[in-house]
């Protein structure tokens, strides 16, 4: 028996901001869930199970917060599953929820991811000493900066590429009412003049710390026939993991990322991603990861990713728009960031992305990664049901 | 469901009060090697891997990434993680196999309680605004539940002591148990619970391999088929729950098909003697059912692995031909807030 097709029929986000002091963690997640339910014109009673994800519990200081959040998410009496796969968790959580539908275990599933970074300190949460390994004492940027330098050295990319990505994503964010950073007066020169944090990563090339949640309602073929609007359909989804550190690991283009993309393209029947995919929501927490992932995901040959960025291909009006929503660079509630990528991809193929809509988007990729560039999750969504 | 999924191998560590000499990875590696040896599968042969653990026990963010290194995830593997007991990792893996995207799965979980105070650590999983600031510890909350049961006439202290004695007597035949054999009930930990009513604090790990259909028959002489599995959660606040009952366990059992035919064995995850009383009632377990022949969580309770061990112990009895239809249960959260039930069956013996 083939798998049940999975449809995204509801999407809800909070307005992402530095600190949501007006709501508890429960209030934050409920806001996103209620928006997703409203979008789908469904009620709590229609939900069979809840799958929730977030990044480390240290960020809010609550161990296994799903226990406390059961009431707020209408999960009492239902199955509630918590996923944690580091930075890729938002994507992984959506995929676990999709599997519940495709395996026909449940028909309609609420999936949600969140982070309320203002209740703690992510820099601290990411800087704990790890026995037997080199300490990551400067948050994520300190870990990733050397790999960016390796990319620049390997490809000969000019040092202007990172600022182009940041300037593009921040301009895209101005069109997205849910985005955290709305920097109306930002210029390319200001990005390039911003302080150097972890050479070569400048302040304006890094993601903010956000409070926010993202929710989606996934359902089966019968559920997708309901009004109000056409759903996004999942055409492929995959996760891949590789070890943190080992001799021969390619931090510039991890094999787990390449394998994950290849699996998703195989499921979706994509043979030429550059031509066949209309929009990409890519996990770019530091600007240089756009050209790096363009290569890793098969949109450009090795060493050529930065050329797409430089030529404007990834601009909102370019041939392959990347992060029309403004991306992680503009909005980063860590645990939710992956799910926002997945949800924004779905919004694009539904034609529901508002001012940051990519015209005629029919197939879109949502991408997330985490850990030491070792955990990957991706899905490809389309505007028509999958065939076969 | 169109695909039959079975537990085909189970391994667990020796559970100990302290494992200062071992990192988490070193604790997990032997059980991974054990299930791989039992099935002959290598990491690269396995279609999906899922683990359960807790950053709060480890005292650092992303603690599971280190264990993944131990799995040997190269070439890259299809892998996921749940921040809870490994029983839920097994659930995620079961769903993955039902989709048809994989034919085999490795599930593992581990927890080291020894580096800190697990009673204090578990208070951090309570409502962070209203409850956690009061630091009510896990034994105190269990004692509230136990007192509610005593007040309701569902049990008394001698009955609880008998559960403790039976569990630890049964654990004599379990080489992995931390507390095998007779123990004094001891002084009150928190009234009405005595130390004997409480689980040992310890470190441990477990691993399971799942496989579908004929693949399972190739890998195991008598696979433990998962006939059904479900889990349910209740409200968090203890004030809105009837602590003498476990409707989530009953509903999960019903959805897993546990009430369709009697089971002969039940491995239930009851860290406190009083919780066995609640679960027996919710599951309708009568005197004909062998309960926790392994000694259960009262004999070894490595947090985050103890639930997966219940599934593994139940499956192992089917593998050995000691059970034909077994129920396995896992719990999470204060006072049995979240519960998972699986029904396992062996094929009829000639």
UniProtKB/TrEMBL annotation, chain A:
<feature type="domain" description="Thiolase C-terminal">
    <location>
        <begin position="243"/>
        <end position="374"/>
    </location>
</feature>
<dbReference type="InterPro" id="IPR002155">
    <property type="entry name" value="Thiolase"/>
</dbReference>
<dbReference type="InterPro" id="IPR055140">
    <property type="entry name" value="Thiolase_C_2"/>
</dbReference>
<protein>
    <submittedName>
        <fullName>Thiolase domain-containing protein</fullName>
    </submittedName>
</protein>
<dbReference type="InterPro" id="IPR016039">
    <property type="entry name" value="Thiolase-like"/>
</dbReference>
<dbReference type="GO" id="GO:0016747">
    <property type="term" value="F:acyltransferase activity, transferring groups other than amino-acyl groups"/>
</dbReference>
<dbReference type="Pfam" id="PF22691">
    <property type="entry name" value="Thiolase_C_1"/>
</dbReference>
From TrEMBL, chain B:
<dbReference type="GO" id="GO:0016747">
    <property type="term" value="F:acyltransferase activity, transferring groups other than amino-acyl groups"/>
</dbReference>
<protein>
    <submittedName>
        <fullName>Thiolase domain-containing protein</fullName>
    </submittedName>
</protein>
<dbReference type="InterPro" id="IPR016039">
    <property type="entry name" value="Thiolase-like"/>
</dbReference>
């Amino acid at each position: 028996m083939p798998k049940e097709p999975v449809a995204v029929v509801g999407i809800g986000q909070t307005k992402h901001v530095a600190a949501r002091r007006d709501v508890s963690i429960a209030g934050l997640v409920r806001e996103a869930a209620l928006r997703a339910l409203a979008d789908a014109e469904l009620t709590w009673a229609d939900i069979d199970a809840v799958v929730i994800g977030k990044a480390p519990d240290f960020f809010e200081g609550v161990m296994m917060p799903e226990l406390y959040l059961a009431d707020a998410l209408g999960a009492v009496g239902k199955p509630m599953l918590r996923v944690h796969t580091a930075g890729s968790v938002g994507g992984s959580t959506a995929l676990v929820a999709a599997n519940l539908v495709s395996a026909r275990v449940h028909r309609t599933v609420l999936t949600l991811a969140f982070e309320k970074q203002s209740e703690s300190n992510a820099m601290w949460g990411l800087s704990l000493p790890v026995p037997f390994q080199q300490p990551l004492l400067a948050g994520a940027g300190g870990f990733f900066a050397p790999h960016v330098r390796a990319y620049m050295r390997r490809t000969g990319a000019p040092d202007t590429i990172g600022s182009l990505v940041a300037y593009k994503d921040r301009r895209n964010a101005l069109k997205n009412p849910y985005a955290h950073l709305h920097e109306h007066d930002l210029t390319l020169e200001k990005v390039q003049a911003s302080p150097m944090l972890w050479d070569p990563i400048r302040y304006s090339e890094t993601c903010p710390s956000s409070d926010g949640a993202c929710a989606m309602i996934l359902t089966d073929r019968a559920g997708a026939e309901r009004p109000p609007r056409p759903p996004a359909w999942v055409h492929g989804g995959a996760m891949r993991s590789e070890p943190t550190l080992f001799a021969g690991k390619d931090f510039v283009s991890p094999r787990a990322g390449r394998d994950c993309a290849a699996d998703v393209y195989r499921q979706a029947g994509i043979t030429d991603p550059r031509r066949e995919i209309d929009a990409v929501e890519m996990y770019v927490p530091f600007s240089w990861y756009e050209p790096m992932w363009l290569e890793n995901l098969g949109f450009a040959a090795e060493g050529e990713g930065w050329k797409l960025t430089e030529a404007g291909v990834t601009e909102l009006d370019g041939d392959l728009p990347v992060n029309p929503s403004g991306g992680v660079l503009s909005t980063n509630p860590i645990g939710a960031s992956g799910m926002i990528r997945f949800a924004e991809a779905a919004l694009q193929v539904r034609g529901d992305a508002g001012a940051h809509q990519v015209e005629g988007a029919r197939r879109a990729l949502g991408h997330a990664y985490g850990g030491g560039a070792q955990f990957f999750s991706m899905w490809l969504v389309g505007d028509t049901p999958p065939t076969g | 469901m169109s695909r039959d999924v079975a537990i085909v191998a189970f391994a667990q560590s020796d559970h100990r009060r302290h494992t200062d000499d071992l990192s988490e990875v070193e604790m997990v590696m032997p059980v991974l090697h054990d299930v791989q040896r039992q099935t002959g599968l290598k990491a690269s042969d396995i279609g999906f891997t899922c683990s359960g653990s807790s950053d709060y026990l480890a005292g650092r963010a992303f603690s599971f990434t280190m264990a993944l290194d131990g799995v040997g995830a190269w070439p890259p593997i299809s892998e996921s993680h749940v921040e809870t007991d490994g029983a839920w990792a097994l659930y995620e893996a079961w769903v993955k196999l039902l989709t048809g995207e994989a034919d085999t799965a490795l599930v593992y979980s581990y927890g080291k309680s020894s580096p800190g105070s697990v009673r204090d650590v578990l208070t951090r999983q309570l409502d962070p605004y209203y409850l956690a600031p009061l630091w009510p510890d896990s034994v105190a909350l269990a004692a509230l539940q136990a007192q509610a049961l005593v007040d309701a006439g569902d049990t008394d202290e001698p009955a609880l002591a008998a559960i403790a004695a039976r569990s630890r007597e049964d654990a004599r035949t379990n080489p992995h148990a931390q507390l095998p054999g007779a123990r004094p009930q001891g002084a009150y930990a928190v009234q009405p619970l005595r130390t004997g009513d409480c689980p040992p604090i310890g470190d441990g790990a477990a691993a399971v391999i799942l496989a579908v259909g004929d693949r399972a028959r190739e890998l195991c002489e008598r696979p433990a088929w998962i006939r059904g599995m479900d889990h349910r959660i209740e409200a968090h606040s203890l004030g809105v729950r009837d602590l003498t009952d476990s409707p989530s366990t009953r509903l999960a059992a019903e959805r897993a098909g546990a009430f369709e035919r009697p089971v002969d064995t039940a491995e239930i995850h009851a860290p406190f003697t009083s919780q066995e009383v609640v679960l027996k009632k919710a599951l309708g377990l009568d005197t004909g059912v062998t309960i926790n022949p392994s000694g259960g969580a009262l004999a070894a309770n490595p947090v985050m692995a103890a639930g997966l061990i219940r599934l593994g112990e139940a499956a192992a009895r089917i593998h050995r031909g000691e059970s034909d239809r077994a129920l396995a249960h896992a719990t999470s959260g204060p006072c049995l807030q979240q519960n998972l039930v699986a029904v396992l069956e062996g094929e009829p013996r000639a």
